[in-house]
Design goal:
Distance between the termini: 98 Å
Radius of gyration: 29 Å
Low-confidence stretches: 1-10, 36-51, 60-68
Number of strands: 7
Strand content: 25-35%
Structural class: alpha/beta
Shape: globular
Mean pLDDT: 78
């Protein structure tokens, strides 16, 4: 009986088996690679949604007659005090007769971007509006709207010529996509909590200034749920 020995060579059938085995390994490697790529794409999509509004800087500004507010700007540009005042006035004027009147009228806005148009320019914003009323020992936010993606169009003389908000109901998302450049869709379709908080603070700054003007600056300011 001959002593068996080891060899690294393969018979023809052995070579075929080796080739099939290598192909199986390659398929597994490819599948792992595709899975890793899909996972990376998902992570990037989530990060894009979370960071859709990008970095922002706060700008101190005087808002209407009721008092100061702090607006937020997302893209560097020539955003003058006058521009912010025009935006504030446009929001207050547009909404004032759409809701129940109050003791104090307040707004907040975040400038996302601007774009030149024929004969003027567009300002892409997220805006909010609300009124405050005296309710016993506190100053309570009453009627108003939430955080609304809004596009304001001005002519070259800085006159407002169009105030555009999204459609209600089923047409909401599609109308926003039509209103805003694609680069802002993630931001305006899923407004981050930090932006909502900034808009709320802007409205409350109007309320604080109003209370100070009537000698009641120590009064608590808030929403219905804060007191009831």
């Amino acid at each position: 009986m001959k002593t068996p020995f080891l060899t690294t060579s393969f018979s023809e059938s052995g070579k075929q088996a080796k080739s099939r085995f290598a192909n199986i390994l390659n398929t597994r490697i490819k599948k792992r690679g595709l899975l890793a790529m899909a996972l990376l794409v998902c992570i990037m999509a989530v990060c894009s949604a979370l960071l859709g509004c990008g970095e922002a800087s706060s700008v101190a500004i005087i808002g209407d007659a009721d008092g100061p507010t702090n607006v937020v700007v997302h893209k560097k540009g020539n955003y003058t005090v006058e521009m912010h005042e025009r935006i504030s006035k446009a929001i207050l004027d547009y909404n004032k007769d759409r809701f129940v009147h109050g003791d104090c009228y307040a707004e907040g806005h975040i400038i996302l971007d601007t774009e030149e148009t024929e004969g003027g320019y567009k300002v892409y914003t997220i805006s909010t509006y609300g009124t405050f009323n005296f309710c016993g020992d506190h100053f309570e936010h009453g009627s108003g709207c939430g955080d609304i993606p809004t596009v304001l169009t001005f002519d070259n003389e800085h006159n407002l010529i169009n105030y555009q908000i999204p459609m209600d109901g089923k047409g909401y998302a599609e109308s926003i996509k039509a209103m805003f450049p694609e680069s802002w869709h993630a931001c305006v379709l899923n407004i981050p909590e930090s932006e909502s908080q900034s808009l709320r603070e802007q409205k409350e700054n109007y309320a604080k200034a109003y209370l100070k003007s009537v000698g009641k600056e120590g009064m608590s300011i808030g929403y219905y749920g804060d007191f009831h």
